[in-house]
Specification:
- There is one protein chain.
- This protein has 600 residues and is an alpha/beta fold.
- The chain folds into 4 domains: 151 residues, DNA polymerase, domain 1, CATH 1.10.150.110; 93 residues, Beta Polymerase, domain 2 (2-Layer Sandwich); 86 residues, Beta Polymerase, domain 3 (2-Layer Sandwich), CATH 3.30.210.10; 243 residues, Alpha-Beta Barrel (TIM Barrel).
- It is 43% helix and 14% strand.
- It is built from 24 helices and 18 strands.
- The strands form 4 sheets. Strands 11, 12, 13, 14, 15, 16, 17 and 18 form an 8-stranded mixed β-sheet that branches. Strands 2-4-7-6-5 form a 5-stranded mixed β-sheet, with helices on both faces. A 3-stranded antiparallel β-sheet has the order 8-9-10.
- Helix 22 links the parallel strand 17 and strand 18.
- Helix 1 runs antiparallel to helix 2, helix 1 runs parallel beside helix 5 and helix 21 packs across helix 22.
- Bound molecules: 2'-deoxyguanosine-5'-triphosphate, calcium ion (CA) (2 copies) and zinc ion.
- The site of zinc ion (ZN) has 5 residues, from loops.
């Protein structure tokens, strides 16, 4: 059994136990173990086979280690199978509806026999929910809104969750003999924040290889169901529900096919028009001159002479265009820019010089300050901001002034230890300069959850909304504008509060917020956590258009999560941002100047 399958089963077990009302420690233990397996760099099954104890894996205790061993050796999880007889797994889907927690799911199931989202909708229509304990008019309304959001999101998966499954799949398929090219196309390649399905494109050097890759594709252990299979295309559904399509194309048309299947559809339509303007015809088989009927897709042989198609660049160049990075292919003006040789020099992950949002064990992070700084050093960062939560987020162990003072004592020790004696080297862990910061809660009235005295002492102050999402747009806007107008504030973190697939943005007038940020020397964050990716690409474009500085923050709560930065860079690229638009693509001295807002 693969690690991915174990993760899925552990999570299912945790969810079902939660619905079943088991104590929260047990539930959390299984969720932690799932996370531990997910981030483990090696195969659990291989470890079991080698006789290495699983209890050495952080987050895996004795009981769970035993269950993993059974999974690895028998391919089964008997306790989960037993539990599923009592609590139908379809109930897990119900908890994905915002406003419907495990407790409510349990009572819906016990009292009304509701086991699916469709049944829940039916029961609401029939007025059956009114009168259930804990379901008042307000709750009912929240559940209905949750169902609407659920339908909007259903069928799409967050990019960060797809990567985890696609990358090992690609490795497997690339190893098939005769495969000369294998790329992911579609929205995945354009790095959309969520993807509907995954489109793979292969080129092979022999017909037998074509059959071999289709076979390897269907035989992949994570495949739950083969939806269709032919000589040059097949589709499967993976165990986690994601659909993957594979097409096999000739090598000399690979570029044209990659271009076509990368999309977006709107980009393709616009590009085909450019081809027509050049008296050429573009299809997934190549760029052709003469002979083609523009209203019918060309096929090799029927379509005149192919003038380009081996690579994407070749096709763009033949049309007088610079190559368009996949992230820009949304028909938002990229072809006009490509024709004018004016495409932006997009920011890359290598341009990021530091992380400006991360948590430690001082609040709800899982790694110590030292571990986080060492991980930042390993990434080659120049600086990193420690931004633990403030006290209003009590459940995170948020810091009040006294606890912040204690944190600073520890930081003094950490820095003293790391600073090379008699040298001017930057203070910090292995050369990473630590910026002392905090993610301070914006309270309901727009005031901040930390004293002015401490706000003044911090190197960097992030502010964010973690409560009262339901305020009217006017109230929410006034609240946030007031917060960013505080003279010590530097960054507005996750500005719309959205959680992809789970929570819609709160109502807020972003144009007014950008105006206030600009007037007060405050940057807006792009929160790179793949669950948030907030601001969205479109909102980032608006921020840039208004001249507002953008920061990137991983919002990491563990060492592993620092790597989520790449998803943030993806979204910045989709928003046409260059390194000049991004605060933490600048050297430390410039960052400090921005943070001082022209003071001292
Ligand atoms: P998704 O899967 O919903 O996240 O989005 P995409 O963009 O991956 O869409 P998908 O998987 O339906 O198709 C992959 C690409 O194939 C799409 O981006 C462009 C191309 N494509 C699909 N259908 C059409 C079409 O009817 N016309 C054109 N021009 N291109 C298409
Ligand atoms: Ca797709
Ligand atoms: Ca597709
Ligand atoms: Zn936050």
């Amino acid at each position: 059994m693969s690690n991915a399958e174990m993760v899925r089963l552990l999570e299912q077990y945790a969810d079902l136990n939660e619905i079943n009302g088991e104590n929260s420690f047990k539930v959390r233990a299984y969720r932690n173990a799932a996370e531990a397996v997910a981030s483990l760099g090696e195969s659990v099954a291989a470890r079991v086979e080698a006789g290495e104890p699983l209890t050495d894996v952080k987050g895996v205790g004795k009981e769970i280690a035993e269950k993993l061993t059974v999974m690895a050796t028998t391919g089964r999880f008997p306790q989960l199978e037993d539990l599923a007889k009592k609590v139908p797994p379809s109930l897990i889907e119900l908890t994905r509806v915002k406003g419907v927690g495990p407790k409510l799911v349990q009572s819906l199931w016990r009292t009304l026999g509701i086991a699916s989202v469709a049944e829940l909708e039916g029961a609401i229509l029939a007025g059956k929910l009114a009168g259930l304990p804990g379901v008042g008019a307000k709750k009912l309304e929240a559940v209905q809104r949750g169902i609407e959001a659920y339908h909007r999101n259903v069928g799409r998966t967050r990019l960060g969750e797809v990567d985890f499954i696609v990358e090992p799949f690609l490795d497997k398929l690339r190893a098939v003999p005769g495969v000369v090219r294998l790329e992911v196309a579609g929205s995945y390649r354009r790095r959309r924040e969520t993807v509907g399905d995954v489109d793979l494109l292969a080129a092979t050097n022999a017909d037998t290889a074509s059959a071999a890759i289709t076979h390897a594709f269907a035989a992949y252990p994570e495949v739950a169901e083969v939806l269709g299979s032919g000589e040059t295309r097949s589709s499967v559904r993976l165990k986690n529900g994601i659909q993957v399509d594979l097409r096999v194309v000739p090598e000399d048309a690979f570029g044209a096919a990659l271009l076509y299947f990368t999309g977006s559809k709107a980009h393709n339509v616009a590009l085909r028009q450019v081809a027509l303007d050049h008296a050429l015809h573009l299809s997934e088989y190549g760029l052709f001159e003469g002979g083609a009927d523009p209203d019918r897709p060309a096929t090799p042989g029927s379509a005149g002479r192919r003038v380009a198609g081996r690579t994407e660049e070749e096709v763009y160049a033949r049309l007088g265009l610079d190559g368009v990075p996949p992230e820009l292919r949304e028909d938002r003006g990229e072809l006009v820019a490509a024709a004018a040789h004016a495409l932006p020099d997009l920011i890359t992950l290598a341009d990021v010089r530091g992380d400006l949002h991360m948590h430690s064990t001082w609040s709800d992070g899982r790694a110590t300050v030292v571990q986080m700084l060492e991980a930042c050093a390993a990434k080659g960062y120049e600086y990193a901001a420690l931004t633990d939560h403030s006290k209003a987020l009590a459940m995170t162990g948020g810091l009040d002034e006294a606890k912040l003072a204690r944190q600073w004592e520890e930081l003094d020790e950490v820095l003293a230890e790391a600073r090379p004696r008699s040298s001017e080297a930057p203070a910090g862990r292995a050369g990473v300069t630590l910026l002392r910061g905090m993610e301070v809660d914006i309270l309901k009235d727009g005031t901040l959850d930390l004293s002015d005295e401490w706000l003044e002492r911090l190197d960097i102050v992030l502010v964010s909304v973690h409560s009262h999402f339901e305020l009217s747009q006017a109230e929410q806007t006034a609240r946030v504008v007031k917060a960013v107008s505080h003279p010590q504030v530097n960054v507005l973190a996750h500005p719309t509060g959205r959680v992809l697939g789970e929570r819609d943005p709160y109502a807020i007038d972003l144009a007014a917020v950008f105006e206030a940020c600009l007037a007060n020397g405050v940057a807006v964050e792009h929160n790179a956590s793949y669950q948030r990716l907030d601001l969205s690409d479109v909102n980032l474009m608006a921020a840039k258009a208004r001249g507002v500085t953008v920061t990137l923050g991983s919002d990491a709560h563990s060492v592993d999560q620092l790597a989520t930065m790449r998803y943030g860079v993806d979204q910045l690229r989709r928003a046409w941002l260059t390194s000049a638009d991004v605060l933490n693509a600048r050297p430390l001295a410039e960052v400090r100047r921005f943070l001082r807002k022209g003071r001292g």
